[in-house]
Amino acid sequence: MRRLFDLDADPYAVDEALGADPRLAPLVAARPGLRSPGAADPEEFAVRALVGTAAAGALVERFGEVLDVPCGGLCGGLTRLFPEPGVLAEESRDPALRELAGALADGAVLLDAGADRDEAEEALLRLRGTAPATAALIRMRALGDPDVDPYGTPGTDHLRPWRSYAVRHLRR
User: Fold this and answer.
1) Which pLDDT tens digit goes with each residue over 84-134?
2) CB of 92 within 8 A of CB of 59?
3) 3-class DSSP state for residue 79?
4) What beta strand segments (E) does 8-149 contain?
5) Which of 1, 63, 73, 108 sits CB 3.0–4.6 Å from 83 for a disulfide?
6) Percentage of the chain with pLDDT > 90?
7) What is the DSSP string of 124-160?
8) Distance between CA atoms of residues 30 and 22, nearest Å
9) Burial 49-62, CB ≥16 within 10 A → b, else e
């Protein structure tokens, strides 16, 4: 939960640094303490980042494990789980997805709490179909890196080590 909600961040340090930038100062003042959220399931996030929202939904419908008892109410009628990487590696027809899912399933790409961010990003970039922006987005969200700009926003280099927070402000 701490990684998911970015609870280990120091919002005062982030706000102080970003608030010194004239472009960000009003955004930081309007939303002090803005967090850079992680991902509940880093492997699922990586797949979603690669294929997109609509295709991820189709993967759930096609390959997701059916729940014995649907989760209604708060879960919005959840009837299936997101497919495991091993299932996607075997069953998907998309070569890029098969490669990513296989790397997640066999541990060639690690996205757990102890993963080395640089190694994970390098491993992602070696996979077919994983663009630098996708690898950076995975690094930012799945690995909780506070200093990533997956969108290539001009003029953010001076905002290190808090670029992930800066792009959150700028994209809101």
Assistant:
1) 999 999 999 999 999 999 999 999 999 998 999 999 999 999 999 999 999
2) yes
3) strand
4) 66-71, 78-80
5) 63
6) 86
7) HHTSTT--HHHHHHHHHHHS--SS--TT--TT-GGGT
8) 13
9) bbbeeeebeebbee
